[in-house]
Specification:
Strand content: 15-25%
Number of helices: 19
Structural class: alpha+beta
Distance between the termini: 43 Å
Number of strands: 13
Radius of gyration: 29 Å
Largest sheet: 7 strands, antiparallel
Oligomer: single chain
Low-confidence stretches: 41-54, 64-75, 143-152
Length: 599
């Protein structure tokens, strides 16, 4: 068991360590972690090797040799290792115990982040002003080294980077985060965390050692060691400012995630899922959820509901303050996992909204956990806009790190967890449908909580869930989740242009024209770029963003859609019953296409 978790943690960390999310720290690692530790070869050494052998001159040169030798000895060859060791230690400690410590001290979660930024500023100033760095490093003088000075220290730098280093999310990191935030830290979690941190740190160590090697071999680096320190300090301050304004995240959104396919393959492995138990380590809070049968029409007993944890932001609450399930004892609670651009959620949310309106006064509390599927769904303003368009007035928690999602061992959009007045999970519904049964169980729990309570009439909204197999599956256009591509070309970012195939299979799409394929969306690089879709559905929608006029032709009729702003779902076609057909969509420059969804 431990060996399996260690391997999973290491591989997950290694994939993260070569992903775009480490790019913001690379310049700091290169200069401050690597180049600064290069062994200096000064001009005095060369002169000493080729100078005169006369008495006075020889004595002078001998003295110079001693000075140079002493200078070389003060340069720490262990600095790259110290930096990475500090990063591993601090990342592991802060990830596992940070939330627990802050909870005990009643401090907000952002304290660690801001503390890390402050430390980065101090280290940056220390690199520019050596005496200041020496004062910072003295508390860590127990690290094996002869002295603590501005050239030898690196552990403090690693500690600072580990406090603010935010790896890309994945099943391993989600499992670690949940364990740390809930305080259920056992041997398995520690093994997973340490191996993940080591796996993520190895590429950084290689980069630091490469920086040292370059500094030793390139003469301009050897001659300007002070400049390397100053550059490292400036980069450290720049990183601190960037973290303060979330610029690294913006940078990551601009750079295609070249490891996403590898991450998806790793995440979807049966062995990984089994070891992490559906993406999250089983803990005392969620271990009984498996007692609930998916989509049961009966009440069951599945343990106390897991905490809502790791939430970035709340809205639709008084003062946008957080809500804890412990505050809602005595009420029936429906926890709804959703994402605003998910077509399945778009058909499910109206039922949840109706239940909230009908039963709120009778003792039902609905909490929406917004767990993003796309990067654009992590933007709070987008989520609030999406919630407003659905008429959602109940509390919504933005679960951008999928912490609560993982704590519930969830895998579906949408997913409903029905909790009774004592805080026990009584029913779990994955996916669309079964709304009448869910509403019946809500009414039953409300009457159990308040016997004799007169409830309003059932909402009886029409269930528009498509019959299984009656519609084309959701069709993603990004390279990491692409399905249903029916063209002849290789579907990758390296293919610049496409042509419609002579024959295209049903339930598929093909491209024509010049396109740029990204991990989550596609966008035209030339004029008249087109997508041809063969489908079976009663409704066809596209998730689009940007600005421009999209035209589409179906059944000989051409229509247009004006696209503006952040990603949203736009209806192309709608009919009374499901039918087979095809539509050709022309996308202009400035518009990005994410997916087709069907009803």
């Amino acid at each position: 068991m431990y060996l399996t978790l260690a391997l999973i943690g290491f591989l997950g960390g290694l994939i993260t360590g070569i992903s775009p999310c480490i790019l913001p720290v690379l310049p700091v690692i290169f200069f401050s972690g690597g180049a600064q530790s290069a062994r200096q070869k000064t001009e005095e050494t060369q002169t000493a090797q080729t100078g005169s052998s006369s008495g006075t001159a020889q004595a002078v040169l001998t003295e110079e040799k001693v000075k140079v030798k002493e200078k070389v000895q003060t340069v720490s060859r262990w600095r790259p290792y110290q930096v990475i060791l500090g990063l591993v230690v601090s990342f592991s400690v802060f990830t596992l115990a940070g939330s627990l410590i802050l909870a005990l001290l009643h401090l907000p979660q952002d304290v660690l982040r801001y503390a890390g930024i402050v430390v980065l500023v101090l280290i940056g100033v220390g690199l520019i002003v050596p005496k200041f760095e020496e004062y910072l490093e003295k508390p860590f003088s127990w690290i094996p080294q002869r002295n603590v000075g501005t050239e030898r220290g690196g552990f403090v730098l690693g500690i600072a980077l580990g406090a603010v280093y935010v790896p890309c999310a994945g099943p391993v990191l989600a499992a670690i985060t949940v364990a740390g935030s809930t305080g259920r830290i056992g041997p398995e979690t520690i093994v997973l965390t340490l191996t993940f941190a080591i796996g993520a740190a190895i590429p950084l160590l290689i980069f630091a050692l490469a920086g040292r090697r370059v500094a030793e071999r390139v003469k301009s680096f050897r001659k300007h060691q002070k400049g390397i320190r100053l550059t490292g300090g400036v980069l450290m301050l720049a990183l601190a400012v960037g973290l303060l304004f979330n610029l690294p995240q913006a940078l990551q959104r601009l750079i295609p995630d070249y490891t996403s396919a590898l991450q998806d393959q790793f995440s979807n492995s049966d062995q990984v899922s089994q070891a992490l138990n559906l993406g999250g380590i089983v803990n005392d809070q969620n271990k009984n959820l498996s007692k609930c049968t998916n989509n049961s029409d009966q009440l069951q007993s599945c343990g106390i509901a897991p905490d809502i944890t790791g939430i970035q932001q709340w809205f639709n609450t008084p003062g946008d303050k957080p809500i804890a399930l412990s505050q809602l004892k005595g009420k029936v609670v429906l926890v709804d996992f959703w994402a605003y651009s998910c077509i399945n959620c778009q058909r499910s949310v109206p039922h949840v909204v109706a239940w909230d309106k009908a039963y709120r006064d009778a003792g039902l509390d609905v909490i929406g956990i917004h767990s993003p599927e796309y990067a654009f769904e992590k933007v709070p303003a987008n989520v609030e806009s999406g919630a407003q368009s659905f008429g959602i007035t109940y509390p919504v928690a933005i679960d951008n790190n999928l912490s609560t999602w993982t704590n519930y061992r969830n895998r579906y959009w949408p997913a409903h967890y029905l909790i009774d007045a004592k805080g026990v999970v009584r029913n779990v519904q994955f996916g669309e449908g079964n709304y009448a049964s869910t509403e019946k169980l809500i009414r039953q729990l409300l009457q159990d909580a308040k016997p004799g309570e007169t409830l309003p009439a059932a909402t009886e909204l029409k269930d528009t869930t498509p019959v299984a197999g009656s519609t084309t599956p959701e069709t993603y256009l990004g390279t990491t989740k692409v399905v249903n591509f029916g063209g002849d070309e290789k579907y990758s970012s390296g293919t610049p242009s496409f042509s419609f195939p002579a024959k295209q299979r049903s339930n598929s799409f093909a491209l024509d024209g010049a396109w740029s394929l990204n991990t989550q969306f596609v966008e035209p690089t030339g004029q008249d770029a087109r997508i041809r879709l063969n489908y079976k559905a009663s409704e066809v929608r596209m998730v689009l963003s940007g600005s421009g006029t999209v035209s589409y032709t179906a059944d000989g009729v051409t229509k247009t859609i004006d696209v503006s702003g952040t990603p949203d779902s736009y209806r192309l076609l709608k009919s009374a019953t499901a039918k087979s057909g095809n539509v050709i969509v022309t996308i202009p420059k400035g518009v990005s296409a994410y997916s087709f969804t069907f009803g």
